[in-house]
């Protein structure tokens, strides 16, 4: 009869030990989760600070860049054309000159003053064949 009681006590003791171990594991898991959550919040706070600092630096760099660009900005003089059409006409005039066409023919074809064409061709000659000293 004592064996039956002893066997029941062993079963209950093992059950209590298992339950205690589960309770211990649950409590340690909760503690570890709290610890990880706290570390994650700290890292997130550090990340947010770094992000704000980086955004501030980017704003400073953008302001400095805008200021530098503003300082470098040079107005196009009134005597220079302000569109790409002039560049295309210059290129075409040089090509026509290479084919042997005269300044007055080029000026008529491109609808620009003849003296501009002559000046362009003179500059082009000086650039391609600089005078020797």
Description of the structure:
The chain has 133 residues and is an all-alpha fold. It has 2 domains: 1-73; 84-128. 82% of the residues lie in helices and 0% in strands. It contains 4 helices and no strands. It has helices at 2-72, 84-98, 103-110, 114-128. α2 (84-98) packs antiparallel against α3, α2 (84-98) crosses α4 (114-128) and α3 crosses α4. The longest helix has 71 residues, at 2-72. It is rod-shaped, with a radius of gyration of 43 Å. The termini are far apart. The relative contact order is 0.04.
Q: How would you summarize the topology of this molecule?
A:
Blueprint: H1 2-72, H2 84-98, H3 103-110, H4 114-128
Helix pairs in contact: 2-3, 2-4, 3-4
Task: Give me a quick take on this structure.
With about 130 residues, the chain is mainly α.
> Could you give the order of the helices and strands?
HHHH
The biggest beta sheet reads: none
Rg calculated over all Cα atoms: 43 Å
Low-confidence stretches: none
3D shape: rod-shaped
What is the β-strand count? 0
Write out key terms for the chains shown.
single chain; 133 residues; mainly alpha; 2 domains; 4 helices; 82% helix; rod-shaped
């Amino acid at each position: 009869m004592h064996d039956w009681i002893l066997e029941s006590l062993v079963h209950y003791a093992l059950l209590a030990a298992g339950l205690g171990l589960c309770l211990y594991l649950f409590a340690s898991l909760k503690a570890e989760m709290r610890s990880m959550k706290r570390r994650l919040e700290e890292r997130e706070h550090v990340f947010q600070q770094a992000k704000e600092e980086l955004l501030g630096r980017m704003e400073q760099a953008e302001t400095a860049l805008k200021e530098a660009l503003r300082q470098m900005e040079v107005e196009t003089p009134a005597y220079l054309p302000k569109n790409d059409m002039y560049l295309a006409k210059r290129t075409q005039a040089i090509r026509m000159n290479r084919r042997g066409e005269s300044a007055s023919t080029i000026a008529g074809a491109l609808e620009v003053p003849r003296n501009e064409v002559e000046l362009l061709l003179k500059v082009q000659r000086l650039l391609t064949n600089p005078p020797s000293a």
